[in-house]
Amino acid sequence: MPLREDIGVPSWSPIVETQQFPLCNTIYNQKSSNPDTSWLCRFIPVARDSGTLCLCGGGRDTHVSIATRDCFGAAIVTQWNSFEHSSEYPTDAFGELEFIGAGKRHSNFLRLSCNTPAHMVYRVMTNYWKMPSPNLVISVVGGGGNEKVKSWVRDVLRQGLVRAAQSTGAWILTGGLREGIGRCVGEAVRDHSAAASSLSLKKVIAVGVAPWGLVAERQKLINPQGSFPARYHVQNTSRDACCLDSNYQAFLLVDDGSVGRRGGEMDFRVDLEKYISDQRTGIHGSGSIEIPVLCMLISGEANMLKRMDLSLKKGIPWLVLNGSGPAADLICELLDALSPVCQSPTSTSPEDKGNQTPCTELHDRVRERVKRYFPAKAELEKLVNSALSIYQNKDLITVFNSEQESPEDFDTVLLKALVRASKRVSSEASEYTDELKLAVTWNRVDIAKSELFNGDIQWKYEDLEDSMMDALINDKPQFVRLFNENGLNILDFLTYQRLEELYRSLSDSIVAYKLLQGSLLERQKLATPHKEAGPHSSPDQETTLKSPQSPISRNSFVSQLLQDIMGDVCRPFYYKHFKLVEGISTRTAMKQVNKFLLGECTYKKDECQYPWASLFIWAVLQNRSEMAVYFWEMAGESVLGALAACKILRELSKLESETETKLSMKELAQKFENLAHDVFSECYQGNESWACTLLIKQSPMWGEATCLQMATAADARYFFSHDGVQSLLSQIWWGAMQRSTDVWKLVLAFLIPPLIYTKLIIHFGKLGHHVIRTKEDKDNPSCYQHSVQKTASLMEHVPFKGEEALSSSPRKPYIVMRWREFWFAPVTSFLGNVLMYFVFLGLFAYILLLDFKPPPNGPCTLELILYFWVFTLVCEEIRQVGCIAWTIFWHFRLKLYLQDMWNKCDITAISLFALGLVCRNFKWSYEFGRAVMAVDYMVFTLRLIHIFAIHKQLGPKIIIVEKMIKDVFFFLFFLAVWIMAYGVANQALLYAYDPRPLWIFRRVFYRPYLHIYGQIPINEMDGGKCTSNITLIEDGAEPCTSTYANWLVVLLLVIYLLVTNILLVNLLIAMFSHTFSKVQENSDTYWKFQRYNLILEYHSRPCLAPPFIIISHIHLLIKRHIRKIPSTKIKHFVLEIRDREASRLNTWEAIQKENILTVQNKREREKDSERLKRTSLEFCTSALSWIMEGLSESNNFKMTRSMPTLR
């Protein structure tokens, strides 16, 4: 930035801490011996002085020799001019400022020339000093020097100005010096900082724009390399200098070459205000309006008229405090007392409007008032002309009258002042629309409600569009709610083009933006060169997601992102608009999108099919809590929507690197899970049958997903713990049989099938109705019968695909129906698989121990049966892979299949069995095959753990064991470190030479591990039968131990046993205890969640267990793929409801959601009101007791009647 010094200055661009500032020159003196002056000024002596004082304010000794020469010849120079008599050089004062003894954070400072371009300074402030872009700039002028500030002005600054700045996110520009108004503003900011939160501190930015020549101790700031920090001491100063105020965050020290003079920063400050007013508000300048700039005049001398005139000519509005001082009072009197300006009759064109001359009468009246306020000023005509020019721009001036308006109303006055200015500049926009835009920019929904949405104004849809986009992009959910309640139709508002604009506004720092940018790069790799250069793109265009000219559809990236996050839970979003077919690969989809986007892309003008859900996803991806909750309230399908948000947030939190953001995502995910649980609880209390239907109903809005599927994907354990979810699962688990049926009855019926038709197994109806029989139903049979009838009545009105064919088919005979009800129940399938699995393990053990004959005698017949049994297990695993997800690609299905740990266990067991099978058929590998089979038997046996997860007592214990295994790995890491340290040292001390690697490995790792369990070979330490002959040792003889450091070996053994047996083992026990207590507290929740996966697995399995399952596989192959008969069993977990019945169910769910939200809001209000009431009552009681006690002790007070009683 330039500094002005009396000679020309080269450009300056130093690199400070890897941050490169723009060009910033300064005017400084090249005389290195006197750093007090950093300007180079032509010495022009004062006529009345003896030649030692320059017109710039500095002495002759502060100028360099070249500046003191007579460079003007015989010309008489009576007035010093900065631009003529000074030059610019690179700045020598910048960096950070530390106020000694203030105890505050460092302030940024920069010395610059008075003609430095404003855009460079603004870039330094926002990019390098990291100051947040302002929503408002308030420039406070006047009240300089030692002028006394009135008390009510202090109140306006403290209660009005700073509070308004905090609520709007404003910058406050003042002189920044510790005097007058600048000092009062600094104190107000200081008081605000002491009471406000850390978030509010970032919203109030105080910037001082001061003349360099007026700053005291400025020589301490000079350092050509930058000061980080410069230590600055605030002290009493002389009349010609003033210290900087420590309460400001930044200082711009404007150097015009003068010393001890005010006003040198005036032109630069006006230019800076004008430049900021041309920038846009919001994140990355995404707001709908330009940054409002308002100048505030407090008191002021005559030079303030020139300052105000310059600013008004640039269209900057002013707020004048009436009664604060001379200049402010003069302006208020001119606006109040003078008649409208007389315009010249010849000036008719708009171009000549600014040159119209006021009448003589008006000129005289202005002269009279200016002379009354500033009688001693010599240049009276210039002041009068400035006053007349100010009066001509009176539309930009607003007066604050302290007698009529309180400091609390200051923010409203600011808003109205800016509205007047915006209306004057833009005649097309109405006053209310401009005021609304400012209210949105400042996030003052209270002003909007009281002033704009109080019922007096009829808002139209067109008036709210821009403000709605501004509120959405800049995260102002209260305004979004306000607009929606006052005329904005979201169906008309949200088109696919606007949705893409919203995704374009994502912050660069969030995970969703990085993922979308990755999708963009992936798509561009697939695009051919001629396709990439679309009709709207250019070769040099930067390929970023935020590029407005890019022909890339962001909705396609969002679809891919949601598909990656959701997995197989739901079908892709937004595929319909790109004419994509479900089930195609991501690569093929991208190529089709590239081809589609080369066309006209008319879909962008279409209305979004599910606007609230689309906005909800957009808010969730950005982790915007309040806005996401509001969109969730409006979107419908509340339970499924909350679970979807839970899934998205938990997946994004895994990718988030920032700890604070990761924690907030997890908290918001848990909040949505709680909302889903509460809403479903309300639904379940209202109607159990409808609530169960809600769990399995497919949602077109969420890609045909169901609540149960989404809850599983989101790991929503708390939601699964709800009694309603468990009741549905229990009913599906038992099928058409009573849940109270004993297990021995099922086993007996399984072994003796004719018992199915006896009263041993009690059946009560079809499973498709999802009847939930509670404890009250058991106690009251009539109530239970009514519940069955009511459920059947509901299901008659809720058809699904395939039901019409089933209802039209003839009713099955009783024998067939009972047979199907028993064998198709998941509990029967589970029981059969358990029994047959035990038989399988017994057969495997028998063969492995007694009948595993080597070739050519083996394998025997039983072993061949075992091979066939394992083959049926392989067929079942293949069937499970084929039934996963909606996609047709096997690699994607296999990926989802391998996500389950027990599926990996099955693959491992089958792979080991295949390896052992191959090896056992050859003599040379028979023993290896036997060993592999033995290990494989262990893997098959461990598979029983998963089977017993359905048990209510064993299930949580299995979870505890799984988590304890993770603790063991951490323990083994520490143990391995100590084993390695002790083993190597022990081997080196005991054996001087042993070339046998296997024995070294055993002594280093195996024996130290056995020491933990008490196996300590004392004889090796003391020496035994051995040899020291190196030749014998190399031939395999046992080497003798070294007894030299025997005492050290014993010491190391003691330390090793102390650490491992006491410290590490107890650490492991403590870890186990912590894991057990943590899981045990939520054991019921863990078990209920795990139970769903097991029920789902056996519900989808064929009724026959291996090896007879091969019959079911052949039957399913013929039925599904040849005869094309759809499955009816899947409807127990997935129910398709459309049209009127779907709308009816969604409306009922929305009513239940409104009920729960009303109850929660009422509870919160009662909590606050009760607390306030209790506190007020206690205070009033205490105060009245104090008053009564004082009156009773007074001799002047006599009771005229008795104390009143409570009626």
TrEMBL record:
Entry membrane topology: Multi-pass membrane protein
Domain TRPM SLOG, first and last residues per copy: 108-332
Domain Ion transport per the UniProt entry, residue ranges: 838-1083
Chief location category: membrane
Subcellular location: Membrane
Bilayer-crossing regions: 746-765, 822-847, 867-889, 901-918, 969-993, 1044-1069
InterPro entries found in the cross-reference section: Ion_trans_dom, TRPM, TRPM-like, TRPM_SLOG
UniProt-listed Pfam families: Ion_trans, LSDAT_euk, TRPM2
Ranges where the TRPM-like domain occurs: 451-722
Record GO terms (molecular function): calcium-activated cation channel activity; ligand-gated calcium channel activity
Region (Disordered): 527-552
Keyword Transmembrane: yes
Keywords assigned: Ion channel, Ion transport, Membrane, Transmembrane, Transmembrane helix, Transport
Biased composition (Polar residues): 538-552
Coiled coil: none
One annotated Gene Ontology cellular component of this protein: plasma membrane
Protein name according to UniProt: Transient receptor potential cation channel, subfamily M, member 4a
Source organism (scientific name): Esox lucius
Organism taxonomic ancestry: Eukaryota, Metazoa, Chordata, Craniata, Vertebrata
